[in-house]
Each structure stands twice: as C-alpha cells, then as structure tokens.
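Retro notes, structure queue

What went well: the backlog is down to a handful. What didn't: a couple of records were mislabeled last round, so from now on we paste the full input next to the output in the thread. Example, using Arginase from Roseateles agri:
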Amino acid sequence: MTLLRSISLIGAPTDIGAGARGASMGPEAMRVAGIGEALRARGCEVQDRGNLAGPSNPWQPPVDGYRHLAEVVAWNQAVHEAVYTELRDGRLPILLGGDHCLGLGSISAVARHCREAGKKLRILWLDAHADFNTSELTPSGNIHGMPVACLCGFGPKELVEIGGQVPAINPKWIRQIGIRSVDEGEKRFVHEQDLEVFDMRYIDEMGMRHAMELALATLDANTHLHVSFDVDFLDPDIAPGVGTTIPGGPTYREAQLCMEMIADTGRMASLDVMELNPALDVRNKTALLAVDLIESLFGKSTLMRK
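Corresponding output:
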C-alpha cells in the first residue's frame, strides 16, 4: 500500500539553454498525455501550479562561452523558488521542463531544503549526456550541457550561487545513469571530479538491475532521493521527441526496471522531467511514454510487490 502523496506539477516552458527550439512546449505535452490524471489514478493528491514565467528565448550566439546567460539565470531563479516552496510545504514537486539547464534551479532548491531539514541527498541523473561542461569545454555554449558542473561549483557566479551555497552539491551525491554522449574535454573533467557514472557500456555489461542496485545503495530513511529524468535518456527508437537524440539508450523494459527499482525504495521526494520536445515527436508518443514511466516511479507494476 503506497502512502497518499501530495504532488505539485510545475511547468517551466522554456528552451533557453538548448540547441534546438521546442522544449518550451514540453509541459503542455505532458499535460495532454495525462500526467495529472495518471498520478491521481495512483492515489496521489495532485495540484497543477501552472507554468512559471520567464524571459523569451532571444536565440543569440554564445557570449564568453555561454548562450543566453542572463535569461538562463532568470529561469533558474524562478524554478528554484517554485521547487523550494513546494518542498517547504511538504509536497513532492514535479518540474515539467523545459530544457535540462533548469535542473540547476531545481536541484539547488532540493539541496537547500535538505540542508535546512538535516537530510542527506542522493541525485539520480538519467540522461544520455553527463551535462558536465564548462564555458571552456563546451563546443556550443548551450547551458543545458552545464547544469551538473554548475551544481558542483564550476560555472558563472550568477548560476553557481542560485542555491545560496557554493557548491550547491557534492559530486559524490550524484549517480549518472544511461550516459552515452560526453564531449572530449568533458570526459576528463568527469574523471577529475570522480562522478559516479553508469554509462551504457556498464549497463550493457552488467545489466540495468546491477547498475540501479549500486546507484540506490546506502539510501536510508534520512535520504531525500531526487530524480532528474532527461527524456533523451531513453533510446530514440521509443522516444523520438527530444532535441539531442543519441542512439543506444535504455530499452522500454530497461527503463521500466529503472523506474520500478526507484519506486521500490520509497525515497523519491522530487522529480524533474526534462527535454521533452513535442516539435520533434510523433503524435505525442514520447510524452505518453514519459507519463507511463512516471507512473512506474509512483508504484505502478505488473503485480503487487510483496
């Protein structure tokens, strides 16, 4: 029997940090795919807080290694305050992105809440990309490739300070799963900072179950588990609606196992759903799949698990 959970949906309709337009339509696609109804059917109490507001996308080239830095800061500040407010009120926030640069605002809010509540934090970063670039390393200047580095204290002052503490998180709190596209300079930086990465080769060799057992190891009753789910984590054959498709991602069954094992811990207390791009999708297929997987995060399984 799952506990009644109080969930708040927060839309962040922007593609400000991305290299392709369209993720700004992600929140509405998730609503059209029935995320609210699906969670209510799982016994959750759901409030849709609507969409946050922020600057429009000026679609400019990078300046000093960053595209749209001022606009990215504004959006992340809005996300930070919205997510932090829900956590403070004892609710489980689901951030509907928007591109993955917004993970910075979301996770910095979770880290702030954990500091104040005396909780440990574990972050699962489900993504094709490590998102550990800096302005020196990035080939594009797109800030959706930088949020993990910013959270770990590597980035422009305006972004790294959003959570009120620098760094917002310790790299040891993150487990990256499904990674299969990392820029050359970024690879070295990931190793230098000793991020724990379960890339697709690891999942191919050891299986999703083993990867998830390690990623979820040592969680206890005082751990807040945050899941940052970039939809490009999934194989593009099943999830075409993303701006940066990288072949060779988890299959439907691997993704389901990943989500069900997270649900089994009973510890997930906040969630990001990022980079859904309906402009590149086929009949909202990717949003429908994302809702299906989110249902599994909230306890849907084939049979009751004893």
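Agreed that this is the format going forward. Reviewer comment attached to the example: Strands lie at 6-12, 45-51, 92-97, 120-126, 174-179, 196-199, 223-230, 268-274.
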